[in-house]
Amino acid sequence: MRLAVIAGDGIGPEVVTEGLKVLGGVVPDLETTEYDLGATRWQRTGELLPDSVLDELRGHDAILLGAIGDPGVPPGILERGLLLRLRFELDHHVNLRPAKLYDGVRSPLAEPGPIDMLCVREGTEGPYVGNGGVLRRDTPHEVATEVSLNTAFGVERVVRYAFERATARPRRHLTLIHKTNVLTHAGSLWSRTVEEVGAEFPEVTVAYQHVDAASMFFITDPGRYDVIVTDNLFGDIVTDVAAAVTGGIGLAASGNLDASGTHPGMFEPVHGSAPDIAGQGVADPTATVLSVALLLEHLGLGDQARKVNAAVAFDLSTRDPQQPVRTTEVGDRLAALAGG
Amino acid sequence: MRLAVIAGDGIGPEVVTEGLKVLGGVVPDLETTEYDLGATRWQRTGELLPDSVLDELRGHDAILLGAIGDPGVPPGILERGLLLRLRFELDHHVNLRPAKLYDGVRSPLAEPGPIDMLCVREGTEGPYVGNGGVLRRDTPHEVATEVSLNTAFGVERVVRYAFERATARPRRHLTLIHKTNVLTHAGSLWSRTVEEVGAEFPEVTVAYQHVDAASMFFITDPGRYDVIVTDNLFGDIVTDVAAAVTGGIGLAASGNLDASGTHPGMFEPVHGSAPDIAGQGVADPTATVLSVALLLEHLGLGDQARKVNAAVAFDLSTRDPQQPVRTTEVGDRLAALAGG
Ligand SMILES: CC(C)[C@H](C(=O)O)[C@@H](O)C(=O)O
Ligand SMILES: CC(C)[C@H](C(=O)O)[C@@H](O)C(=O)O
């Protein structure tokens, strides 16, 4: 396996080290190449994602990313110039975000019940395309627009991926989240696509919810969800709600996938670079390790993925919540459990 | 006070009756005119909001709305043809949604702490303007767009309103919620406007959060928020999250205001028409009564508003959660408490 590693900023390198420890334990032929991208590089050289680096990244089987960001970088620069650019250049139209409440993990909900959902967020369209503009900036007549672009091609492929995931899960249930009563143009395309693709998956039951109602049900009744499919912006929001109710972004994993397999997927914990705790060895690498499991699964290494997931589940169920997290200890435990 | 009443569908008439009971108890000179709008009228006549009715509504001091909607009406018809049309025609640029966790109310959060926030959602711009379209419908080349329109005029007035509310509250804190790192055009307008208007309110501290992070903090640390200002779509989502953590939309009130006072405000519970429990006398009218308090406050009847709010707070703190709600009993109690 040829893996590109973008450790990034803040706690990124620390959690990635543990992710690689676990990955190396289950994939003997792991070859890694490190790429220095992120806030530090931008601050030093002004470079975000040189074309030559992008080309090299394309030659790998997958990319593991730690975290990108630093308070010293103006907001938006790294997001658009690096993170989103990677998603768009590598056609990461599936942004995969499981949200599972593990035994031993405290939910902020009083009665969470079992939660085990898989959010399939579109990653290359919607309001994220950067389309829009400003007229008469800094005058009382300024107008600023943002255009959400949605194509049959783009919606169909992510909806299809979501149905494929749903049909492989025991509950076989898919919920479309949108705001079809207000965003009627895009909403209609999404609804029709779910209906059409759904006809090929008669075994999957389908539900629809408006994004506002869904955000509420994620809190009052999260157990009702199995697979979710939604657009880029709604997905950004609801996956953070899902992460919050399942114990926080400290545990949330994600995969940015090109479902066609043409481009390598990029796997990353949802949390940021957490500069306040960087370098102290106290960052929890669990989200990175869960992202490694998504990576393995995407590359068809289902057995290895299951081992890593089982290691995390066991470790979380036996952790003493009073004990502070030590990054390397968690990594050591998970590597031993997964590789053993 | 000349009040237009749109009782609407489902439980709408039941909760409005109780709202009027409470309002009548604190406003002796109340004159009401009922307007038959909603699913039933549309199904009978095909009419949503005749121009003559709209003209008459404009002549009132305020509008009280129960709930609109019926499963027999295709989604979007009543929302766009009636609810949103009213907001746009009456220039309801402030969509006011308090979220307070009352004593005696169960939050789905294990440790909610005190929650008392006031969401100021923009109501006449953003992705709600209906701008967008579809190209090559029902072909593999279909493209659907949604355009979010944001104007300096529109953003400034709602941001100003939010600062005015913040400065009148003990904590004097305002949080802007947006997604400035991705929606850079609109995000920049919102950020610059908050900065500029904020200079006139040096006593108000200002925070900014991305909508995804905020949706998480609403769950993990809702007590940090005081006043919130946000765009139409983000406001739709985060106010439902806020409602969920403070006990559900059964208690959530809202006011749609033209802060300039040119057009009458419209006050409505956030919940829907709940056809499943309509006609049984078990709908909780509390959200409607809290909307009546917003109405009173907006019309400058602060003393009466405080009485109604105090009645609700007292009643909620003394309700037996085992006892089912009886619509008229709750209304009688609240009317007696507020009017006494
Ligand atoms: C950093 C930001 C651009 C990104 C997004 O909005 O997609 C993040 O919030 C995420 O969810 O991965
Ligand atoms: C009914 C719908 C159009 C409306 C909205 O999206 O604003 C509702 O969700 C609300 O929040 O009042």
From TrEMBL, chains A, B:
<comment type="similarity">
    <text>Belongs to the isocitrate and isopropylmalate dehydrogenases family. LeuB type 2 subfamily.</text>
</comment>
<dbReference type="InterPro" id="IPR050501">
    <property type="entry name" value="ICDH/IPMDH"/>
</dbReference>
<dbReference type="Pfam" id="PF00180">
    <property type="entry name" value="Iso_dh"/>
</dbReference>
<keyword id="KW-0520">NAD</keyword>
<feature type="binding site">
    <location>
        <begin position="272"/>
        <end position="284"/>
    </location>
    <ligand>
        <name>NAD(+)</name>
    </ligand>
</feature>
<feature type="binding site">
    <location>
        <position position="240"/>
    </location>
    <ligand>
        <name>Mg(2+)</name>
    </ligand>
</feature>
<keyword id="KW-0464">Manganese</keyword>
<keyword id="KW-0479">Metal-binding</keyword>
<feature type="site" description="Important for catalysis">
    <location>
        <position position="128"/>
    </location>
</feature>
<keyword id="KW-0560">Oxidoreductase</keyword>
<feature type="binding site">
    <location>
        <position position="236"/>
    </location>
    <ligand>
        <name>Mg(2+)</name>
    </ligand>
</feature>
<feature type="site" description="Important for catalysis">
    <location>
        <position position="179"/>
    </location>
</feature>
<feature type="binding site">
    <location>
        <position position="121"/>
    </location>
    <ligand>
        <name>substrate</name>
    </ligand>
</feature>
<comment type="function">
    <text>Catalyzes the oxidation of 3-carboxy-2-hydroxy-4-methylpentanoate (3-isopropylmalate) to 3-carboxy-4-methyl-2-oxopentanoate. The product decarboxylates to 4-methyl-2 oxopentanoate.</text>
</comment>
<dbReference type="InterPro" id="IPR019818">
    <property type="entry name" value="IsoCit/isopropylmalate_DH_CS"/>
</dbReference>
<keyword id="KW-0100">Branched-chain amino acid biosynthesis</keyword>
<feature type="binding site">
    <location>
        <position position="212"/>
    </location>
    <ligand>
        <name>substrate</name>
    </ligand>
</feature>
<feature type="domain" description="Isopropylmalate dehydrogenase-like">
    <location>
        <begin position="2"/>
        <end position="334"/>
    </location>
</feature>
<dbReference type="InterPro" id="IPR024084">
    <property type="entry name" value="IsoPropMal-DH-like_dom"/>
</dbReference>
<keyword id="KW-0963">Cytoplasm</keyword>
<feature type="binding site">
    <location>
        <position position="212"/>
    </location>
    <ligand>
        <name>Mg(2+)</name>
    </ligand>
</feature>
<dbReference type="GO" id="GO:0051287">
    <property type="term" value="F:NAD binding"/>
</dbReference>
<dbReference type="GO" id="GO:0009098">
    <property type="term" value="P:L-leucine biosynthetic process"/>
</dbReference>
<keyword id="KW-0432">Leucine biosynthesis</keyword>
<dbReference type="GO" id="GO:0003862">
    <property type="term" value="F:3-isopropylmalate dehydrogenase activity"/>
</dbReference>
<protein>
    <recommendedName>
        <fullName>3-isopropylmalate dehydrogenase</fullName>
        <ecNumber>1.1.1.85</ecNumber>
    </recommendedName>
</protein>
<comment type="subunit">
    <text>Homodimer.</text>
</comment>
<dbReference type="GO" id="GO:0000287">
    <property type="term" value="F:magnesium ion binding"/>
</dbReference>
<keyword id="KW-0460">Magnesium</keyword>
<keyword id="KW-0028">Amino-acid biosynthesis</keyword>
<dbReference type="InterPro" id="IPR023698">
    <property type="entry name" value="LeuB_actb"/>
</dbReference>
<feature type="binding site">
    <location>
        <position position="87"/>
    </location>
    <ligand>
        <name>substrate</name>
    </ligand>
</feature>
<dbReference type="GO" id="GO:0005737">
    <property type="term" value="C:cytoplasm"/>
</dbReference>
<feature type="binding site">
    <location>
        <position position="97"/>
    </location>
    <ligand>
        <name>substrate</name>
    </ligand>
</feature>
<comment type="pathway">
    <text>Amino-acid biosynthesis; L-leucine biosynthesis; L-leucine from 3-methyl-2-oxobutanoate: step 3/4.</text>
</comment>
